[in-house]
Amino acid sequence: xxxxxxxxxxxxxxxxxxxxxxxxxxxxxxxxxxxxxxxxxxxxxxxxxxxxxxxxxxxxxxxxxxxxxxxxxxxxxxxxxxxxxxxxxxxxxxxxxxxxxxxxxxxxxxxxxxxxxxxxxxxxxxxxxxxxxxxxxxxxxxxxxxxxxxxxxxxxxxxxxxxxxxxxxxxxxxxxxxxxxxxxxxxxxxxxxxxxxxxxxxxxxxxxxxxxxxxxxxxxxxxxxxxxxxxxxxxxxxxxxxxxxxxxxxxxxxxxxxxxxxxxxxxxxxxxxxxxxxxxxxxxxxxxxxxxxxxxxxxxxxxxxxxxxxxxxxxxxxxxxxxxxxxxxxxxxxxxxxxxxxxxxxxxxxxxxxxxxxxxxxxxxxxxxxxxxxxxxxxxxxxxxxxxxxxxxxxxxxxxxxxxxxxxxxxxxxxxxxxxxxxxxxxxxxxxxxxxxxxxxxxxxxxxxxxxxxxxxxxxxxxxxxxxxxxxxxxxxxxxxxxxxxxxxxxxxxxxxxxxxxxxxxxxxxxxxxxxxxxxxxxxxxxxxxxxxxxxxxxxx
Length: 541
Ligand code: TEU
Ligand code: CA
Known about the structure:
Layout: E1 11-14, H1 30-34, H2 37-43, E2 47-50, E3 54-55, E4 67-71, H3 78-90, E5 94-99, H4 109-114, E6 128-129, E7 146-149, E8 154-157, H5 172-186, E9 192-195, H6 216-226, E10 234-238, H7 243-250, E11 259-261, E12 270-271, E13 276-280, H8 285-299, E14 306-308, H9 317-320, H10 327-339, E15 344-348, H11 369-381, H12 387-397, H13 436-439, H14 445-457, H15 462-467, E16 469-473, E17 480-486, E18 490-496, E19 502-510, E20 512-516, E21 524-529, E22 534-538
Parallel strand pairs: 1-2, 1-15, 2-5, 5-9, 9-10, 10-11, 14-15
Antiparallel strand pairs: 3-4, 6-8, 7-8, 12-13, 16-17, 17-18, 18-22, 19-21, 20-22
The protein binds 1-O-alpha-D-glucopyranosyl-D-fructose (TEU) and calcium ion.
């Protein structure tokens, strides 16, 4: 496989609304991000993925774009964005933008023009029909995926909220508009793109195909050739698929993307036989480790994996894979187990200090359009869940769990701002969980992340951790994940994925420990693993 500049890089995801509020208006902003660049540099990350900061009415917190080439004033100005790109570069860090190609905001000028009628040149930028093609296809957020426009006597399609009309990718003008928007940001020195629900841009509505349509890959390849493919940047697609889908997007010879998010593990806690994420089930550790192995083997020498345990659409990894009763060791164990795999580590803001899900006191404390639309759909209209069941599901899986303000210290609003009411509740546990009380503690989660990233990028083991071949062991053991990485060195990771004490016989003698979430002297193959105990060691026999 050809080596790339981004192969050894670590990507940190920032949700601008919740990262740092520099002007005390209750919402995070770009100057706030600039003020934390040294913190991010010291953490050891390289590329900053910002979720959409473009002009938007914020119905879906920016994933409803009203101008791809202008900044939402609540986040700052274009000068602020230029400064962020420049200041990041000074620190050898780069910006990754988030392109929402599948849909725009209903306040985008294109859609406002389209609503003027069938003769308008922008009408075919969207998907209008005389009636819904399939009444049974629901929006991802719950509820109908078609909205009626009385003055046109037409319906338009929206995979998400009605304020997010889907673009018509069969229209070459739409494809050129998106290429132009991407080129605008390429020329500004942006070095990465995350593509939102990229698997949806090949939809064939008339044939009831909403994802992975027959034209998908030709559209992505065309976009590559007409925009980002002309620049040496890194691209990742949110694609909600499987192994073959990952290959179809990311094999180098296909000239599409560099890697994709697949979510088979993180979405496995959604009970799809009931109401998906709002009826969550416990993680199946055997399924999780075998799925991670499946992707490691499948993409090992032909493509590139993404290593993700959290993002802005998921709950906190401690609540999904760990245990708040073992918050520190499970947070460290999850990081060590996942980020020694082959691929690009993605760290979501707050994950590095072990932030947890938040217990909201009722529906009114949520902010997410997905929560409100799903509540209307599941509780009020279809009555398939009680309000209590729905709120219990929200506590475990609502996206707002990961959208609460970053907890910088124990001052008002966790140091997120100077005290102005925040757009979403600050987690009350900020008094115990915050950057300030971890940054000088060598045993903190934050210090563990820094050491893990140092080992991964600036140690004698780096080449093996970036390029080493993956091999799994004890595959039938449902509690413990054991794998090696081998290049110029041979490294092994043993991880107890449970909150129980588990005994195993390691395939290799454990004595040259590189990093662990417990302080133990080890020199044997028989191991009594504490809850979430995870060890990275060099195989020396
Ligand atoms: O997410 C698409 C997506 O599939 C998830 O939002 C999922 O549908 C949802 O969490 C239901 O479980 C992308 C963005 O990451 C998300 O933030 C946006 O809301 C969505 O697309 C629409 O742009
Ligand atoms: Ca602000």
